[in-house]
């Protein structure tokens, strides 16, 4: 029942979003995006209170027998991890929109349908990830080692700088399935021309964003599984982070360069949760310590980035 109500709540949010607040395609200003970002973050933290109530009342399955306050802290920690790892996703989305020359007023529509797909794919990955950890305890070490490897790889490489959407495997495969046109007709994903159906740049961008989200989830899902293997906590924190991604994109898209040092915060977070998974049999880290480290890493990354940007502007 709780799962059904949660999914219904998400569907209501999405219906209100596309059916009322963004019924007409328009350019979303930084001010509007900032307000919606604040709304989604506020809703995410309000839901942590609902988490406390659900686990206190016993209305949700509690396979790990978590205390209410512990479940709430794990949810917030997972949410912050997913939110921080979304920063890299925003960089890639900006590159994709630029490569396919997607107009600003059509970008929200693409991200809206992208979220629908992300919810489905994340749900499947979380289900199988939780199942693997519960059935094969050794996969915890595998996930931990993978996160450490990812952190080291991020430290020494900059894959986003070399990413070319039109040269990607997804674009080439899609071009073999359906003809691709460079024309955009309003907000349509497909257009009919000369008795043929063509995929517009909007649809191509949507497919590539979906595939990239799955690739990013390969990092983010194991990261949150280091915090908890409770499926409801993992799924709900993931979904709230995804729902806030659109407004965060429009809020940060024009000033991504100001947060250049956040990359190191992400590396620190991935390293931390990776070592936590690998050493969980030997070192027990309190939930408040995990939450504190992740929040501090994000705060330091933001402050150092803003200070560095200020120094660069003065010079």
Describe the structure.
With 315 residues, the chain is mainly α. It has one domain (2-314). Helix content is 74%, strand content 3%. It has helices spanning 2-21, 30-57, 68-99, 104-135, 139-156, 159-162, 169-177, 201-225, 231-243, 245-252, 262-278, 287-314; strands at 190-193, 196-199. The chain has a two-stranded antiparallel ribbon with strand order 1-2. The protein is globular and about 65 Å long.
Task: Going across the biggest sheet, name each strand in turn.
Answer: 1-2
Question: How many beta-strand segments?
Answer: 2
Gap from first CA to last CA: 59 Å
Identify the overall geometry: globular
Total domain count: 1
**Number of helices, where a helix is a run of at least 4 consecutive DSSP H or I residues:** 12
Summarize the main sheet.
2 strands, antiparallel
Give the helix proportion (percent range). over 70%
Question: What number is the mean pLDDT?
Answer: 82
Query: Helix and strand succession?
Result: HHHHHHHEEHHHHH
Percent range for β-strand residues: under 5%
Give the uncertain stretches in residue-range form. Answer: none
> What is the C-alpha radius of gyration, as a whole number of Å?
20 Å
């Amino acid at each position: 029942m709780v799962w059904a109500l949660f999914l219904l709540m998400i569907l209501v949010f999405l219906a209100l979003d596309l059916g009322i607040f963004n019924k007409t395609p328009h350019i979303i200003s930084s001010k509007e995006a900032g307000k919606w970002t604040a709304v989604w973050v506020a809703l995410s933290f309000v839901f942590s209170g609902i988490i406390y109530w659900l686990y206190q009342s016993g209305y949700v399955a509690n396979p790990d027998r978590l205390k209410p306050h512990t479940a709430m802290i794990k949810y917030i920690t997972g949410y912050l991890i997913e939110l921080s790892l979304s920063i890299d996703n925003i960089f890639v989305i900006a590159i994709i929109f630029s490569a396919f020359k997607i107009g600003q007023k059509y970008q929200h529509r693409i991200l809206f349908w992208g979220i629908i797909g992300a919810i489905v794919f994340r749900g499947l990955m979380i289900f199988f990830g939780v199942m693997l950890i519960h059935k094969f305890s050794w996969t915890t070490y595998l996930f931990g080692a993978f996160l450490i490897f990812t952190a080291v790889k991020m430290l020494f490489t900059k894959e986003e700088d070399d990413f070319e959407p039109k040269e990607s495997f997804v674009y080439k495969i899609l071009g073999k399935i359906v003809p691709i046109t460079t024309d955009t007709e309003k907000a349509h994903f497909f257009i009919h021309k000369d008795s043929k159906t063509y995929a517009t740049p909007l649809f191509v961008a949507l497919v590539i964003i979906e595939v990239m989200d799955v690739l990013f989830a390969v990092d983010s899902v194991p990261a949150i599984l280091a915090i908890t293997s409770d499926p409801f906590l993992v799924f709900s924190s993931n979904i709230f982070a995804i729902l806030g991604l659109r407004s965060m994109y429009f809020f940060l898209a024009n000033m991504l360069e100001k947060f250049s040092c956040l990359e190191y915060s992400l590396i620190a977070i991935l390293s931390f949760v990776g070592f936590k998974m690998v050493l969980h049999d030997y070192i027990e880290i309190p939930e408040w310590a995990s939450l504190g480290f992740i929040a501090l890493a994000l705060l330091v990354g933001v402050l150092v980035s803003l200070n560095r940007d200020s120094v660069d502007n003065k010079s």
